[in-house]
Amino acid sequence: MSDDIHISVRTLVEHVFRSGSIDSRFRSQATLLDGTRIHQKIQKTYQEGDQKEVYLRAEIAYDGLTFLIDGRCDGLLFRDGRVMVDEIKSFSQPLEQIEGEGYLVHWAQAKFYAYMYAKANALTEILVQLTYVHVETEAKRYYQKNCTLSELETFVFEVIEGYAPYAKLQHEHRLERNESCKELTFPFKTYREGQRKLAGAVYKTIVDKKNLFAKAPTGIGKTISTLFPAVKAIGEGPLNRVFYLTAKTITRTTAEEAFSRMRTGGLCMNTVTITAKDKVCFKEETNCQKDYCEFADGYYDRVNDAILDILSNENGMTREVIEAYARKHTVCPFEFSLDLAYAVDAIICDYNYIFDPRVSLKRLFEEQKKSTVLLVDEAHNLVDRGREMFSSSLNKEMFLQLKKDFKGVNKVIYGAASKLNSSFISLKKANADKNEFILEQLDEAFLEQLFQFVEDTEQQLLTNSSQSLVEPYFMVNNFLKISELLDEHYVIYAEKNKNDLVLKLFCIDPSKLLKQMGKGYRSKVFFSATLSPLPYYQDILGGNEEDYALSIPSPFSIEQVDVFIKPLSTRYRDREQTKDSMVTMIKSLIKNRPGNYLIFFPSYQYLLSVYEQFKLSDEETQTIIQSTGMTEAEREAFLAAFMPDQKETLLGFAVLGGIFSEGVDLIGDRLNGVVVVGVGLPQLCFERNLIKDHFYKKDKNGFDYAYVYPGMNKVLQAGGRLIRSEMDHGAIILVDDRFLQMQYQMLLPPEWRDYTII
């Protein structure tokens, strides 16, 4: 790696000159599009011979480093034998609010371009112009300066001097990082069976710029088997950054531990974990306004020092580490973690920072994506999460409430909310005989009303931040954004709920949009113990023909697990009749094989009904029960009850697909058996039936796509809690007569197929 630092003009000046507070009170959502539109409009007024979007670059040596700085200036104007650099900025606030002679950061950008052009064309002086344009009215304000080359040169060196400490720190870190990645050895004495195969496949995927779908069994150490080859690829050069994406906090911890283990082996690598804003916020309520929050007030004046400080002293930036430095420098911990994400080597975060169009890390440029790998853990969860991210809904109740709130307070908002409330009423009346109904398309007049609502609330929010308006504003805005994505992968439907009516843009098949949001990254690796059947997941997660696929058999011996099938019907209609048999089966199990058991039920109602019946006939056996909305402390207490070497039997009653059926490790003697009640099918409902019909039309098995595969995934996840290491032994009891049917048998892992019917 050479001593070159490649950076764009804009990134450089924004780093050095950013100042002020975080203010999430309100920003118009249209600004980016408006900015582009306004730039083009101004550029059309240029005279013949003027140039627009001119690429400029400069090489500047400073303090042992060479800075390669480049960018595109908006305009080069030629007037009366003189050259002028024009920098256009769109502005949503009234132009009278522009302070003094324009903003320092904008002048810095324009002066950089002026310096580059003057230097390259041997000019001793050059004109610099800032053009501010108001988004709504298109009113303009111009500021001009005449600059000499030597003035510009002095200025440019001052800016680089401001950036150099950070650049030097990053540069030295990268050299050390790459060396340590090259020398790193696998952080365990030996590879577990299947581990080397997975690690090799991940490395090859990154080198070949491909995507990989990997079904890798529980217990082989998937986290280290995907992270280690990614780290090695950084050392070899094709990679510069890793995203480890997860759906659950517990798997984030596993990734942090894997990095920490590699650091013990000599790895020098910066990682940051992004935690949701409402979880890390230091204040009573999450309200990012400078008058309310000292961590938002003046955030940009302090954040550069905070970043330098944490990067100079820490490698693993977990939630606790970020919170400590955020308090030390009085900066918002959430925004701080996002700013760090652009500076570090690996980011551990939720799926939505990459895939959700509303949340994703926008400042990751295409160039950076090309040297970034996405490691998607527990990828089976991305199917429903994808549907959620790309869907949007609005309900009548919200507009009725706004109508009440703003009556006699604000005529404009009252009017806009009334119109929308009336549209919902008309839609309801037109479909009076149905509880749910599909719409072929969105009504043009209704869309107009939504656009009008956004415009009216925007005006109101710019002048007066009314809290009750913020959420409806964002919901409508999001609905309009999603409405632009509507195609054959969507269904528009409405559902009545007492007096309310919900209108939903439902993304049935997220494959196309997941593919789009993941575009540009060097490689993507989707992995999970239950990525089965693989062709289904490849299809629905946006895979291609040329993607790699890998299925690794379980490393554990068939002798470690005894599988039993109890052919009782657990269908909704039969649950009352089979309840006694269920209780008898549980009692017989613990009599013959005492120990610690987790029993998973398809619903909370069903769980309570069997639990109560069991308690009536057996008051002695120790039981614990999952309750709804458990706090983290309650969850930990539930798991802590599973002690090794217990003399007494313990039964934990839990919900299939709930918090205890995924990502939970009860190693060794802490868990002796898992009982799975039912085949996990989601409840029959309108939305699932829409999925079923959609895929049948595509000549795929719609029932499998909507019900069987998601259901069996929960069964496999729950059963996967049992055998976590070579030392574990235990029993899996599958309770349902459907487990004996061919379509379900085929979805059982090979090591479960040697079963005994009881």
Can you summarize this structure?
Keywords: 4Fe-4S, ATP-binding, DNA damage, DNA repair, DNA-binding, Helicase, Hydrolase, Iron, Iron-sulfur, Isomerase, Metal-binding, Nucleotide-binding. It is built from 26 helices and 25 strands. Mean pLDDT is 92; it is low at 25-32.
CATH H-level superfamily of the largest domain = P-loop containing nucleotide triphosphate hydrolases
CATH class of the largest domain: Alpha Beta
Mean of pLDDT: 92
Q: In what order do the strands lie side by side in the largest sheet?
A: 10-9-11-8-12-17-7-18
Q: By helix and strand content, what is the structural category?
A: alpha/beta
Shape: globular
Rg over C-alpha atoms, rounded to the nearest angstrom: 30 Å
SS elements, strand count: 25
Which quaternary structure do these chains form?
single chain
Question: Residue share in helices?
Answer: 40-55%
Please report the number of helical segments: 26
